[in-house]
Amino acid sequence: MEWAASLNEYDKLVIRMNTPRVVIDNAVCDTATLVKVDSARKHGILLEAVQVLTDLNLSIKKAYISSDGRWFMDVFHVTDQNGDKLTDESVISYIEQSLATSYAPRPNGFTGLTALELTGTDRPGLLSEVFAVLADLQCNVVEAKVWTHNRRIASLIYVKDEDSGSPIEDTVKIDRIIVRLRSVLKGDNDIRSAKTAVSMAITHTERRLHQMMFADRDYERKSSNPPSSSSSPPTVSVQDWSERGYSVVNVQCKDRPKLLFDIVCTLTDMEYVVFHATIDTDCTQAYQEFYIRHTDGTPISSEAERQRVIQCLQAAIERRASEGVRLELCTADRRGLLADVTRTFRENGLSVTQAEVSTRSETAGNVFYVTDAAGLPVDPKTIESVRQRIGFSSLKVKELSTYPKQPPSSTRDGGVGLFSLGSLVKRNLYNLGLIRSCS
Fold first, then answer.
1. In DSSP terms, which residues pair with 39 in a beta bridge?
2. Contacts by 301-307, CB closer than 8 A, 24 or more apart
3. What is the pTM of this model?
4. Residue 242 — pLDDT band, cuts 50, 70, 90?
5. I want to staple 125 with a disulfide (CB 3.0 to 4.6 A). Which of 103, 156, 344, 346 is the partner?
């Protein structure tokens, strides 16, 4: 099929001659800004477009995606973090310039830093041990993201040498970091699956976290945490549309920021191409449907593969769905700050389910989601005790975050498929003249 291993010379010429056309329109829709993109098609182009928008923390409320032959057409309905249309000219200009380029990968990595990649079995206090090792080895943590899912942990930690302020290039020191961190990750029972890597490469942090957890096969593992009364897995179905040679993926779940990125990222890294899609949100619910094929042009061919796609997409959605109390730390940065803060969490029986660390102009701005050691809600008295030790003005409670339960629906019995939500895309394809009937 046409999407074989690599682009031939004619494909490359088409891409060069057909620079993406971008139109940003605030007049058509009363509630959102329309971002329209027309471009020559290539593998990963949808992910790159979505990545540009989500890296700006924009919400994609609706989207219509179609790839006809060698051409790719997108319409995104986006709002800012407050749910308003885009009015900042600098943001609009950035979107136009970014989407109108050749879609080169845009990492949100950090130059001049060393990236540490960690995966292993999650346990209470693990993050405290990791940061304690880095402090002991004179590694200054500048940025970090930590995800946990199904009792697994993946983390990207960007560090520099504490004394020189430069990337860590000393091979002896790098080896010491790897050995010490791997020992911490192994603990007493994770000898085989604990992994530590050091990289100088610039990467897109969140995409890399997805890749790390996917490689760790977190989607096959079952969480040992007690089920929350407010949690329910997202509904994902995969059906065949043999008439057109597509596999149809439907997703219904709670809407949240970066949901589309997480799904498209997973499909792309699993070597699927999205040819058509419709994205819609209804109050707090998201409905997403994708018509996909392998990169060689074939649809999903077996029940085992179908189940794997379902598991992987459910895992991709759940990884970012933080549970627990959101704690925000804002204070002057200092040596050993993260080690001290996370040790205080551990000593008070708190488990970190997700973390985002950022240092700007000598100020640490960190976010932690915490539960108790069993994964249950934390006693408010414990939170106040932790805040007292760290500093009430430095550590603030912002919100409770749980993955909301899906409301009862007739589509949750497996009927989310070609003849229910599928009608959204079928109607879109009919309007584009790609099929004869939308009934």
1. 72
2. 306/238, 306/247
3. 0.85
4. confident
5. 346
